[in-house]
Amino acid sequence: MAVPLPRPHRFDVYVALSGLLGGVLLWALQLFPRRTEDALVLWSPDWAALVPLTVTAGCELLRRTLPRTGLFIGMLALALDTVTRGNVITIVMFTDLVYAAVLYGSPAAARRIPWITGLLTVAGVVVPWAVWQVPEAMLIGVGVGAIALGPACTGWIVRNHREAAEAARLRAEQTALLAEMDRAQAVTAERARMARELHDMVANHLSAIAIHSTAALSLDDPKTSRDALEVIRENSVEGLAEMRRLIGILRDSSGDLEPAAAPTLDGLGALVEGARTNGLDVTLDAEHAKLPAPVELAAYRIVQESLTNALKHASPGRVTVTLARRDGVLDVRVTSPYGDRDGPRAPGSGAGLVGMRERAALLRGSFEAAPEDSPDGKIWAVHATLPVTDIAQGDPA
């Protein structure tokens, strides 16, 4: 099955037609570079010069699609032109074929053609001078360099510039792609951080409200209902204040509003006291020196979320919070009774466990939350280890 020739580029068609018309014009004006009586002219009719001219013009149609084929046929046409009276346009079009073969040809051809034309130029200088021993003989090498080496070197330079420009464009696209990926990752990380912070700040208050409102509705006791309403009001005010603060920071485009100071482990006492107010029986055992701020914030939020989960899901009994530093890590452990709960229960979505696991992972620590057996029965244990000597870069919130 015959393979169809590739369609020539429009510019190549223009080049071929322009060269052919220009050569015909010179032929019609009898402007030949050689005379009939010259020794090289073996085919003397005037029309003979039109044959290599037409062939070379046809090769120009291949300058972009089949550059090596066009150059090879062009060399044969140039050799034929040398035994006729010749045409300047044929030589000009051949130089363009050499240039195109380097510019549009394969990388191997682009490397070899300048070397080959360079060797031919040297040979055109040395051999005629050695044979005839006259300086004028070296002009043959000059002519070879003008019609072969010069166009080849020009094509090589242009090709290198184009490849450098293409490489720069690809690098710019890759840089833009990486910047977009970094931006998307930063947005995702910021959204996750905001989700964790919002959940940790508000979930505790809303859980207490849900539980105490359920108790107030289910018990027909004025004193119990009043106590529950007081707890509900307290948690509502605190939760609303936290929400307003966070929304104000998000809406502030000028950056004038400063976020509240990040909680530290020094605030665990107040956190535990608030949990006791909400009805939990909590004990705290926390002996620690001053730790890096990211570690203290993560540990505080893990304890806060654990107490929130205990308030929502734990059975009646004691909740223990233990913090200890050992072997370069801060060990955080919160346990609560595990089993069926008779009293009111607040709904959960599992976002708290996800947030605690993310906080530990950002510090390159570990996190586990699962039921365990203990001498006092089944318990739910939250255990996190947070390195204090190899803190992950970034904001762990």
Please describe the structure with a list of short key phrases separated by commas or semicolons:
397 residues, alpha+beta, Heat Shock Protein 90, five-stranded mixed beta sheet, 10 helices, 5 strands, 61% helix, disordered C terminus
Note the topology:
Blueprint: H1 10-28, H2 50-60, H3 67-82, H4 88-104, H5 107-132, H6 139-218, H7 222-251, H8 268-277, E1 281-287, H9 293-313, E2 318-326, E3 329-337, H10 351-362, E4 366-374, E5 377-387
Parallel strand pairs: 1-2
Antiparallel strand pairs: 2-3, 3-5, 4-5
Helix pairs in contact: 1-2, 1-4, 2-3, 2-4, 3-4, 4-5, 4-6, 5-6, 6-7, 6-9, 6-10, 8-9, 9-10
SS field, number of helical segments? 10
Mean pLDDT: 83
Q: Could you give the distance between the termini?
A: 68 Å
If strands are numbered along the chain, what order do they take across the biggest sheet?
1-2-3-5-4
Q: Ranges with pLDDT <50 over ≥5 residues? A: 392-397
Main sheet makeup: 5 strands, mixed
Percent of residues in beta strands: 5-15%
Radius of gyration: 43 Å
Shape: rod-shaped
Please characterize this protein's 3D structure.
This protein has helices at 10-28, 50-60, 67-82, 88-104, 107-132, 139-218, 222-251, 268-277, 293-313, 351-362; strands spanning 281-287, 318-326, 329-337, 366-374, 377-387. The chain has 397 residues and is α+β, with helices and mostly antiparallel strands. It folds into two domains: 10-173, no CATH class; 261-397, 2-Layer Sandwich (Heat Shock Protein 90). It has a five-stranded mixed sheet. Helix 6 packs across helix 10 (351-362).
